[in-house]
Amino acid sequence: MTYGPEIIEHLPKLRDEDIQAMALHGGSSLSPEVIEALKVEIARRGLPRSLAEVADALNRPINAPQLKEVLDWVRKSNCPLCGGKEDPLNVISLKKVKSIIAYTSTKAYMVLGCPACIALHAEKATESCLVFGWWAIPFGPILTLMAIASNFKALKAAMNSEPTQYFLAYVEQNIGPLIHAMKSGKVGGQKFILDPWEKKRGLVS
Ligand SMILES: [Zn+2]
Known about the structure:
Elements: H1 16-25, H2 32-45, H3 49-58, H4 64-75, E1 90-100, E2 103-113, H5 115-132, H6 139-159, H7 165-173, H8 175-183, E3 198-204
Antiparallel strand pairs: 1-2, 2-3
Helix pairs in contact: 1-2, 1-3, 2-3, 3-8, 4-8, 5-6
Bound molecules: zinc ion.
């Protein structure tokens, strides 16, 4: 769906947060006239100029060099978990299994951090599986073993010098806010806009 000129007259009535959200997430759903009006509104309110630049950038398809620039910038940023800057960041997908009486559930989630933080989280996830996963027969032990194997494989991929598929997906999904953080020169300790990517499914014995 594309938003056309009909929304232009409403722009002055929107809250600053809505204007910011439109600039960072609107992308190709905004027509060129709306982008121009949005830029005027951003300037009128004295909001950061970088918002207008992001709205402009997202209105065109992001090309490979632009994507790579954002990707490299995020990888070289400070770790959001420990603040360290020595090693490139990566994203790992981990699993935790929990059995309660006859019910076993698996939770999958993502962690963005430096290799040391990723390894620590992977260890914690596996420990949690070993303590809480086994108890429901038969699914507890089966899902626990599967989760431990999956965490091990994920850790191996995240320790590789290349970004994982989850890292690439994270950058693509958050491209607007990430370009904004990059353009506004926020380096180090910035809060990452990680979608709360968490899936849960359960099995009853
Ligand atoms: Zn770290």
